[in-house]
Amino acid sequence: MTTRIAIAGAAGRMGRHLIEAAHKAEGTRPTVALEAPGHPSLGNDAGVLAGVGELGVPVADDLAAQADDFDVLIDFTLPEVTLAHVRACHAIGRAIVIGTTGLTDEQKQELAEVARDIPVVFAPNMSVGVNLCLKLLDMAARVLGDEVDIEVIEAHHRHKIDAPSGTALRMGEVVAEALGRDLKECAVYGREGRTGERDRRTIGFETIRAGDIVGEHTVMFAGEGERVEITHKASSRMTFAGGAVRAAAWLAGRPAGLYDMQDVLGLKE
Ligand SMILES: NC(=O)C1=CN([C@@H]2O[C@H](COP(=O)(O)OP(=O)(O)OC[C@H]3O[C@@H](n4cnc5c(N)ncnc54)[C@H](OP(=O)(O)O)[C@@H]3O)[C@@H](O)[C@H]2O)C=CC1
Ligand SMILES: O=C(O)C1=N[C@H](C(=O)O)C[C@H](O)C1
């Protein structure tokens, strides 16, 4: 059966790749494309926007009005826009895949409540490689334990508006959980001035924003005499878009619940 996909933020960096991925993947089809009211792309064909040729899917601004035309919404937009779409999907009973990062704790809480009634995949990074790295990080943290200093370094393009990246924060959470720490208490974001010696139980975050970097993450476990680094480098947004479309096909017809990419990829024990 073909999964009909709606794409929010269709004219955005990820939106265009999502249209292409949903069009090219077997078993999925982009049927709805959304942008905000007044957006210059409204009425344009989504396939033309994405560079894959005409698809007969004009960019529109009203999700609820197209409820009968899609099975799963994929949303890579802004936290407040994503939450409005979550509420709309709840009202019309549709599944949603969310890639948006930078949600507040309150927004995540609302998402968890809605996921009691509809199926939701929510993940800061949809690439297979990053999700494999999350497994490796759990193992590295358990083996190296409290004997090492842990730093998360991430680099992204100059247009990114949230920091640290959602992926970096998730990496920090995985490491903190493995070590029995609370990330909210042990995270240190950037350093400046007379900082004093490093406290071993902290987890440091460094952010680079420059040029057109698609997305790079390194977690460093540095001890006396050796260090381990686990690095992921994305060189194309298609790696995220392909993962999101795979998640949408996986989600169609599932029971209500809050899932992540580890569920989609079968990486949970
Ligand atoms: N989970 C993952 O694997 C990944 C997650 N991301 C995350 O995805 C998000 C988007 O990133 P990116 O594509 O680079 O950002 P962009 O700014 O390029 O895209 C966001 C799009 O959403 C549009 N938009 C704004 N308001 C609405 C609305 N009310 N309805 C529909 N569309 C709207 C924007 O329009 P405009 O700005 O023109 O008004 C824009 O086209 C970020 O949070 C990023 O961190 C990114 C890559 C991978
Ligand atoms: O904004 C981006 O581009 C990306 N955002 C995600 C994040 O915040 O982790 C994932 C990816 O690295 C690209």
TrEMBL record:
Catalyzes the conversion of 4-hydroxy-tetrahydrodipicolinate (HTPA) to tetrahydrodipicolinate. NAD(+) binds at residues 9-14, 54, 99-101, 123-126. Residues 129-265 form the Dihydrodipicolinate reductase C-terminal domain. It catalyses: (S)-2,3,4,5-tetrahydrodipicolinate + NAD(+) + H2O = (2S,4S)-4-hydroxy-2,3,4,5-tetrahydrodipicolinate + NADH + H(+); (S)-2,3,4,5-tetrahydrodipicolinate + NADP(+) + H2O = (2S,4S)-4-hydroxy-2,3,4,5-tetrahydrodipicolinate + NADPH + H(+). GO terms for cellular component: cytosol. It comes from Thiohalobacter thiocyanaticus. (S)-2,3,4,5-tetrahydrodipicolinate binds at residues 157, 166-167. HAMAP family: DapB. The keyword NAD applies. This is 4-hydroxy-tetrahydrodipicolinate reductase.
